[in-house]
Design brief:
CATH architecture of the largest domain: Orthogonal Bundle
Shape: elongated
Protein name: TetR/AcrR family transcriptional regulator
Largest sheet: none
Structural class: mainly alpha
Number of strands: 0
Helix content: over 70%
InterPro entries: Homeodomain-like_sf (IPR009057), HTH_TetR (IPR001647)
GO molecular function, one term: DNA binding
Low-confidence stretches: none
Mean pLDDT: 91
Number of helices: 9
Pfam family, one: TetR_N
Keywords: DNA-binding, Transcription, Transcription regulation
CATH superfamily of the largest domain: Tetracycline Repressor, domain 2
CATH class of the largest domain: Mainly Alpha
Number of domains: 2
Length: about 190
């Protein structure tokens, strides 16, 4: 395949992330990314400097995209408990099948190893919790603690689904979160 002269970093980083999902973080090398993108390994080294820097750039871009998707989903849901469920179901849609979810957990390991990426995860979690808190308690009296509890239940739901992925992830999430809200309403 002829070498391409130029590609934007965003495209290259998407390819890097795809390789990490396919082969694990260790499977991302300058050589594998060069083969995938049509750029030379030397060009990639020149752009990113080192493999850790390239991994971090790809994961930073991934956090940016997740935040964009989260903000877009927040903008489309009602500020109601039903809207909170719809928000988390929308964010679950990208998990896909079990292999994709499992690969994502391997990538998450890389986020947890880097303080800057952990900070991105915390900021995203705070934003998501605040939005869920508005949905659950109303925009006038948002309750980010309640939002964090729902986000935590959502993450647990995804993990439980992964052990028995016989139902579509979105269906499983919607049913579990609706049950969670039902229990909360009983305690009021």
């Amino acid at each position: 395949m002829p070498r391409q002269k130029s590609r934007p970093d965003s495209e290259i980083l998407e390819s890097a992330l795809a390789l990490m999902h396919e082969r694990g973080p260790e499977g991302l090398t300058f050589a594998s990314l060069a083969e995938r993108t049509g750029l030379s390994a030397a060009t990639l080294v020149q752009r990113f400097g080192s493999k850790p820097a390239m991994v971090k750039a790809a994961l930073t871009q991934s956090w940016d995209r997740l935040l964009e998707a989260t903000e877009a989903a927040i903008a489309t849901v009602d500020k109601s408990p039903k809207g909170a469920v719809e928000l988390l179901v929308a964010l679950s849609a990208d998990y896909g099948a079990i292999d994709s979810y499992a690969d994502g957990l391997l990538i998450l390991r890389e986020d947890l190893r880097d303080p800057d990426l952990r900070a991105r995860g915390k900021a995203w979690g705070d934003r998501l919790s605040a939005a869920l808190g508005e949905c659950l308690a109303g925009a006038d009296h948002p309750n980010p603690t309640l939002g964090r509890l729902m986000a935590s239940h959502w993450q647990g739901t995804l993990l439980w689904w992964s052990f028995d992925p016989t139902v579509d992830v979105s269906t499983f999430v919607e049913e579990s979160l609706s049950s969670f809200l039902g229990v909360l309403r009983q305690g009021e």
